[in-house]
Every structure is written in structure tokens, then in C-alpha cells.
Write a structure and sequence with these properties.
By secondary structure, this protein is α+β, with helices and mostly antiparallel strands. The chain has helices spanning 15-23, 26-34, 40-60, 92-99, 129-134, 205-213; strands at residues 6-11, 66-71, 84-90, 106-111, 141-151, 156-159, 162-166, 173-179, 186-191, 194-197, 226-231, 246-250, 254-259, 264-268, 276-278, 283-296. Strands 1, 2, 3, 4, 5, 6, 8, 9, 13 and 16 form a ten-stranded mixed sheet that branches. It has a six-stranded antiparallel sheet with strand order 12-11-10-7-14-15, covered by helices on one side. Helix 1 (15-23) crosses helix 2 (26-34). It comes from Streptomyces ziwulingensis. InterPro entries: ATP-NAD_kinase_N (IPR017438), ATP-NAD_kinase_PpnK-typ_C (IPR017437), NAD/diacylglycerol_kinase_sf (IPR016064).
């Protein structure tokens, strides 16, 4: 017998909850904020709006379904199942946080604070939840491209927006860079790191680098099977070059980086706490991920 669908509500601790946890009481948190020219009333109201949205989504889950909740900090310990429908209540970035833990489960993005988020990934309101849940397995979904990095020791990292490869603390990273299938051409580089991004990431960090560089490469759409990559602040010297500093990766193309320093890190979507660590001589390949994020429109 197949299991009933399970609605997994993903949320994050609000700023108000973090303040009260740090300072002990509402009053102490209010005093702390007032000493810095802020009013706790606005923070508390945002907390109430977010919690109302979460409660409204929970109430919309069909009675025959199972239900679970997971906070952002616990995502790496939560076991998602094939029959899950993931409902992210919060900010756009929270969808990116959960994407790498999924394997094709449909995702519904609900904006917990309408008007404060761009709504690129949290496209819906809490009032839409009932209809979206009913059509979760049959409704239209955008298949968003993701990027992955795979190290030679089998460590693997997946991201929805972008993957960054560089030195700890964003200091000078030393490595050899090349494109697989490019005749073995590689270049020794010293830079601020390498950024490989998707069409979803083209609304954030990737776009910033693309714009600053004045790149002629067209930015990909979130559903395009195409990635862009940029080397940040490559340094020319007798031992390091700057000829391989930007490009695109299509289909099965891979960027190959071999470490030439004591320690480099690879992290996705700005989450440095969940990084793959590499050392001298290790190689990492970066390219399009076979899995995609199924985001309900």
C-alpha cells in the first residue's frame, strides 16, 4: 500500500524569535533594539505575519495527508521522502536552502511577508496553499536548473543559485583551471575565487559579477540547461594567467579545478557553514546537476 502524501512545511526562525532567545525576554529585546534606534513593534509584527502564514498553510493541508515541519537549521538532518510535497514559507533564499536536499519532490514557495521579498521563488500567498496542494502532483511546475560540484574523493555539493570555489576568508586562491574536453588546456591562476551560477542565480550574485564585468554572455533563464562561470579578480604574474576568466557551460560541459594551496572551500548559495574542503592536488568538477528543482508556478 502506498503512503499518503506528506506536506513538509519548511520555515526559519524569525528575527523576533532570535532576539528573544538571545536577550531572554521581550522587554530586554525591546531595550536592546531601542538603544540602536529600532522599534521592536515592527519586528514583532513581521513575526506575527510570518506565523499567521505558516498556520494558514498548515490548516490548508488535506486531512488525509500527513504533515511535518522542519526549521532551516535542521534541514541537513531531515529525511525527505518521495511522496513529500515541500511547502517553503518565508523568503526566496529559503527555497534555495532546501533545494539541495530534494530529489524531484514538488516545491511550493509561499511568501511569509508579502512586499518584503522579490517573490522570485516564493511566488504564492498563504491563501493559495489549499489549491496548490491539491494540484501538487498534476499542476504546472518549472524545472529549475541546479549546479553541482563533485570532488575526486566523492564529496558532492549541489546549489540552486551558484557555487563558489575559493580560499577561506576570500583570500587569494591558487589552483589550475580548465574546461574538460578542451584539449587539456589549463591555466594556473591566483584569484578571489571562481563563481559558477544558474539562471536562478542570475537574479543575485551571478548577475552582480556579470554586470560589473560588462560581460557579453547572455544570462541564462532559470530553466535553461546552461551555466555561466566567472573568475573573480584573477591576478597576472609570471606564474599565473588571466586568459580563462569567464565562459558558459552547456549540457554535460564541466569546469575542472585542481587545488594548488593548502586549503580551498566549495560552498553553495552563500552557505559557508556547509562547505566541501579541498587540499593540495585535489580536483573538483563543476557543472549542471542532473536533478532539477520542481517549483510549482
Amino acid at each position: 500500500m502506498s503512503l499518503a502524501p506528506r506536506a513538509v512545511l519548511v520555515h526559519r526562525t524569525t528575527e523576533y524569535e532570535e532576539l528573544v532567545a538571545r536577550h531572554g525576554t521581550h522587554g530586554q529585546a525591546a531595550f536592546f533594539l531601542s538603544s540602536r534606534g529600532r522599534d521592536i513593534g515592527e519586528v514583532a509584527e513581521r513575526h506575527r505575519r510570518t506565523r499567521r502564514a505558516l498556520a494558514e498553510v498548515a490548516a490548508a493541508v488535506p486531512l488525509s495527508w500527513r504533515q511535518a515541519r522542519v526549521e532551516r537549521a535542521d534541514l541537513d538532518r531531515f529525511l525527505f521522502a518521495p511522496e513529500d510535497v515541500v511547502v517553503v514559507v518565508g523568503q526566496d533564499g529559503l527555497v534555495a536552502n532546501v533545494a539541495k536536499y530534494l530529489a524531484g519532490q514538488p516545491v511550493i514557495g509561499v511568501d511569509g511577508e508579502p512586499g518584503r521579498n522579490p517573490g522570485v521563488l516564493v511566488r504564492h500567498r498563504a491563501t493559495d496553499a489549499a489549491a496548490l496542494l491539491r494540484g501538487a502532483f498534476t499542476g504546472r511546475a518549472d524545472e529549475l536548473t541546479m549546479v553541482e560540484a563533485v570532488a575526486d574523493d566523492t564529496q558532492r555539493l549541489v546549489a540552486l543559485n551558484e557555487i563558489y570555489l575559493g580560499a577561506v576568508g576570500h583570500q587569494t586562491a591558487r589552483y589550475r583551471l580548465g574546461l574538460e574536453g578542451d584539449g587539456g588546456v589549463v591555466e594556473a591562476q591566483a584569484s578571489s575565487g571562481v563563481l559558477v551560477g544558474t539562471g536562478t542565480g542570475a537574479t543575485g550574485w551571478l548577475r552582480s559579477v556579470w554586470q560589473e564585468r560588462g560581460s557579453a554572455l547572455p544570462l541564462p533563464h532559470p530553466t535553461d540547461d546552461r551555466l555561466l562561470w566567472f573568475v573573480r579578480e584573477a591576478w597576472p604574474s609570471p606564474a599565473t594567467g588571466t586568459s580563462l576568466v569567464a565562459g558558459e557551460l552547456t549540457a554535460a560541459a564541466r569546469l575542472r579545478l585542481t587545488v594548488e594551496s593548502e586549503r580551498l572551500v566549495v560552498f553553495g548559495d552563500g552557505v559557508e557553514s556547509d562547505a566541501v574542503e579541498l587540499t593540495w592536488g585535489q580536483t573538483v568538477r563543476v557543472g549542471r546537476c542532473a536533478e532539477k528543482l520542481r517549483l510549482l508556478g
